[in-house]
Design a protein that fits this description.
Strand order of the largest sheet: 1-2-3-4-6-5
Shape: globular
Number of helices: 4
Number of strands: 6
Distance between the termini: 48 Å
Number of domains: 1
Order of helices and strands: HEEEHEHEEH
Largest sheet: 6 strands, mixed
Structural class: alpha+beta
Oligomer: single chain
Helix content: 25-40%
């Protein structure tokens, strides 16, 4: 892979995106760690929200790892003065939907072609303000 292309994967502009990993130490291995989850968001500079996504290894699901990843991503996003998250979730992915629902966001949900589009604000009542900002109103 060319060096320039490789740089896209290893150099992160934390003002535009965030990536975190969940790791555990390998059994019997003193210095070795295994990645069991990843969480990330990409900032929409117009709306001051971010598209969020995360994944957890199958064997680690149902143990609160997704909740922890989302919680820490939320903490980081708030520190960055973001207003909320957006996400796309398959309609049949009930565990992922529960993670978002129990996070305490003000969630707006719409559906199309088997996918829920979620808009989650950290504070209630912001969508009208945000919409006016995006559309150029006062």
């Amino acid at each position: 892979m060319p060096h320039d292309r490789l740089q896209e994967f290893v150099i992160i502009d934390y003002t535009k995106q965030m990536v975190i990993l969940a790791v555990v130490k390998e059994e019997g291995e003193e210095e070795k760690e295994k990645i069991i989850g990843i969480g990330q968001y990409y900032v929409d500079e117009v709306t001051h929200t971010a598209d969020v996504a995360f994944a957890v290894r199958d064997v680690c699901q149902g143990k609160g790892m997704g909740t922890e990843l989302l919680s820490y991503l939320t903490y980081l996003a708030k520190k960055q003065s973001l207003l909320g998250f957006t996400a796309e979730v398959l309609m049949d992915n009930k565990p992922m939907l529960r993670v978002f629902e129990k996070a305490g966001f003000n969630v707006e949900k719409s559906s199309a072609e088997g996918i829920y589009e979620l808009k989650m604000l950290f504070w209630k009542g912001l969508w009208p303000v945000l919409l006016r900002r995006v559309l150029g109103g006062s």
